[in-house]
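Subject: Predicted fold for RidA family protein, 155 residues

User T.R. writes:
Posting the sequence so we have a shared reference for the thread.
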Amino acid sequence: MSAVEAKIAELGLTLPEVVPPLAAYQPAVQSGVYVYTSGQLPMVEGKLPVTGKVGAEVTAEEAKDLARICALNALAAVKSVAGDLDRVARVVKVVGFVASAADFTGQPGVINGASELLGEVLGDKGVHARSAVGVAVLPLDAPVEVEVQVELTGE
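User M.O. replies:
I've generated the structure tokens; pasting them so everyone works from the same file.
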């Protein structure tokens, strides 16, 4: 077990299987020393635990927890191409999408769920640039979607 996966386990979490693509794309691709994940939904055992708009059917706190799941799914996607999460030199960028009710403006707080998880798991290597964007709707009526770019060590 890698040190990163040991930290995930220490947090009481399990690195999930990679979420299968919903369309014509790969969960993650490597280009040089970078791995780019596709947008990761908060799938748990093949299902969304909740659907709807944040600020309407889904609370901001629920959505923050879902963003944590998205980040964990993103780490699984990174591992699928990098082979070992200990190769992560740093998280470079996180982009989070929040399916938002018309008057909801708390997107940064929601995506903090993903950012905080990456920090808990990777420490200083998890500090990243980020965008948090409100959108009208996401695939499968998911409340949150997160994509991650990481830099790998040369090993």
